[in-house]
């Protein structure tokens, strides 16, 4: 699917991409589908990041992201809510309401299985920028998937809302279970499907689980969080370090179900935004213009229904 076959409202201005050491590259639209915005100076503070995090604990607001966009040719953004507070969903929507071309979507935070989930989902999804929620916390541990959670996941599918999944408290087997039980729910696994990236050959157990979950056509994966998954500070900037994982993702998801994201500002723990993007571009460029266009932009529009 080409970006230019999308609804006219989804067409975004092409910008010239620059990356250190590469010079001017062919014009490409870039949608970053994974950034966080928050204000640590708000009354009551924020649930995340913790005050002990010397890199992230500071206000991270639209002017900060605007500079990153201008320096790196980012044309549109999907925000992922990092707060567990219900009110913060609307706070973010209001924060960026005057920049609809830059901020095209919000992946919100709502508690699945809670008594007021349906009411809150209906209210927030009245704003077309609210595209779904992220599955992050796992209350009740192994007993998380109760009847109320399945009810709400089905409701999301019925309302054409999407599900991002952070792998910290969930497994690929969990994602496979959801995808098979609710095949109409669009699911996006975050941060290269939770792979541990250490520059060594792939974990065969992870690879097998990845292949299994990728058999579900409603499951996509974000090429995000590479620096985070390296567990190194500063993170390596050599593509070869990440290539075993990226090659496996490409093999099982292909150009139609991979979606670009960064995890900014968490990327700053590992290095600059430009160095992160350079790794992804170096991997994608041999795949050709059409594949790059899909992964960097049009797959995001298709998945989130923007």
Helix and strand string, N-terminal first?
EEEHEHEHEHEHEHEHHEHH
Biggest sheet details = 8 strands, parallel
Determine the number of helices (DSSP H or I, runs of at least 4 residues).
10
Low-confidence stretches: 1-24
The coarse silhouette is globular
Overview of the structural elements:
The chain has 306 residues and is an alpha/beta fold. It has a single domain (14-304), classed as TIM Barrel (Alpha-Beta Barrel). Helices cover 36% and strands 13% of the residues. The protein is built from 10 helices and 10 strands. The protein has helices spanning 62-72, 87-95, 117-125, 147-158, 172-181, 204-214, 226-230, 239-253, 273-284, 289-304; strands at 18-19, 23-24, 31-35, 76-80, 103-108, 130-135, 162-165, 187-189, 219-223, 258-260. An 8-stranded parallel β-sheet has the order 3-4-5-6-7-8-9-10. A two-stranded antiparallel sheet has the order 1-2. Strand 6 (130-135), helix 4 and strand 7 (162-165) form a beta-alpha-beta unit. Helix 6 (204-214) runs parallel beside helix 8 (239-253) and helix 8 crosses helix 9. The protein is globular. The two termini are 14 Å apart. Residues 1-24 have low confidence and may be disordered.
Question: What features would you highlight for this structure?
Answer:
alpha/beta; TIM Barrel; 10 helices; 306 residues; two-stranded antiparallel sheet; 13% strand
